[in-house]
Amino acid sequence: MTNTEPSAILLHERDARGVHTLTLNRPAAFNCLGDSMLRAMQDALDAIRDDAAARAVVIAASGKAFCAGHDLKEMSAQPSLAFYQALFARCSRMMLSIQKLPVPVIARVQGLATA
Fold first, then answer.
1. Residue 48, φ and ψ in degrees, nearest 5
2. 3-class DSSP state of 10
3. How, if at all, do strands 10-14 and 19-24 pair?
């Protein structure tokens, strides 16, 4: 469940108190939300939902921006309606998962935060 590999696009740490920290880790791309980031976020949120000892979630980011929104480079490289529909459905599911978590969720925002 805990991923602290520096090359990972999402770092997931859980401390002894049950506080999960999810760190968006694509600073060169301003931590934009591409398909792989959304999948990683969903996997982490599912794990947190199933962690009976979870007490809170902190969403943070590496670098000078919190999140620049969707990955427009990825989207322009895949100009198909099916891709867009799947991407937006995945993003909606991820946002609803945050909302439905049974613990407080805190965004630790620094710098740019859009979309």
1. -65, -45
2. strand
3. antiparallel
